[in-house]
Amino acid sequence: MKDMEKNSYMYILATILLAFSTSCVSGQNNNAQNRETENTDTVNFTVSFRTAVGRKVKTFGNDSIQEFFRNSSALFSVEYIDPTSIIRQIFYYEDGGIRTIYYNDHPENLRCLERFGIDSSGLWMEGFFPSGNLRTQVFMVDTIIVTADNSIRGGILNIDYHENGQIRRIGFVGTVGTQNTPVGPQRYFGESGNLIKIRNHIFPKEGEPYIVEREYHENGMLRREKRYINFPDTDLKPTGTWKFYNEKGELTRIEVYEDGELVRTENIN
């Protein structure tokens, strides 16, 4: 089971993305820091006021709008007015570290995923830990995710990272009805890169959407297989037969759920 999962397209994408993500955006992060430095000059200052929560706002001509932490000279955010700028907006921690960057559609920011066969309009957002290490990336994409007998267009690829740089979670978001929701397999990894679980969001053409979740032991063997009613409920409801396995891959217990309630348990000797 584990080998089949690891050979899937998304797993390959996850491991490759980790290798190239730094090179894809490192120049953009340097640009963000340079732009912030350029805009600390108050020569072109034209407007100053405070927001409803007390943050001070300064407008610098047609270049940028800067917002500062309340009762502090530390930058809270910088918004670049020029739509041709690579960066649209930057948010900061109070110690000056970059917290979040939002990007515009820009030739230098496009096609980060092209080499993997995903049509991407580019990197849309990056988040960072207080240490400066990459925390999350959001790519705008145009791809098809097949769940059961249904094909759903994916518009977002989310990648979250552990602070040590290993991918923590990767998965697509698509539009179902009028809602954006995780679609297809969402993969979760430990700090050492080991696969922890796969949560597969399935939307059949007929019948209720559901989630199949597979958790893994540290040795890679299947640990638990669970199923939930997925959508449109906010809280996941257990449903169907859950299976539990030991580290050797042997079935040890079965739980049966109906309408979110446990109705039967069977231990396997």
Tell me the layout of helices and strands.
Blueprint: H1 2-6, H2 9-38, E1 45-50, E2 56-60, E3 64-68, E4 75-80, E5 87-92, E6 98-103, E7 119-128, E8 134-147, E9 150-161, E10 167-176, E11 179-189, E12 195-202, E13 210-216, E14 222-229, E15 237-238, E16 240-245, E17 251-258, E18 261-267
Which features would summarize this protein structure in a list?
single chain, 18-stranded antiparallel beta sheet, elongated, mainly beta, Outer Surface Protein A, domain 3, 269 residues, disordered N terminus, 2 helices
Summarize the structure.
This protein is mostly beta strands and 269 residues long.
Describe this structure in words.
By secondary structure, the protein is mainly beta. The protein has one domain (2-207): Outer Surface Protein A, domain 3 (Alpha-Beta Complex), CATH 3.90.930. The chain is built from two helices and 18 strands. It has helices at 2-6, 9-38, and strands at residues 45-50, 56-60, 64-68, 75-80, 87-92, 98-103, 119-128, 134-147, 150-161, 167-176, 179-189, 195-202, 210-216, 222-229, 237-238, 240-245, 251-258, 261-267. It is elongated. 23% of the residues are buried. The model is unreliable at 1-12, 14-23 and 25-47 (pLDDT under 50).
Number of E-type strands: 18
> Could you name the CATH topology?
Outer Surface Protein A, domain 3
- Give the oligomer, counting copies of the same chain as homo and different chains as hetero: single chain
Radius of gyration: 23 Å
Strand content: over 45%
At the first level of CATH, the class is Alpha Beta
Are there runs of 5+ residues with pLDDT below 50, and where?
1-12, 14-23, 25-47
Helix content range of the residues, please?
10-25%
Report mean pLDDT, rounded to a whole number: 78
Number of domains: 1
Query: How many helices does DSSP assign?
Result: 2
Largest sheet: 18 strands, antiparallel
CATH architecture: Alpha-Beta Complex
Q: Which structural class do the helices and strands define?
A: mainly beta
Shape: elongated
SSE pattern, N- to C-terminal: HHEEEEEEEEEEEEEEEEEE
Taking the alpha carbons of the first and last residues, their distance comes to 22 Å
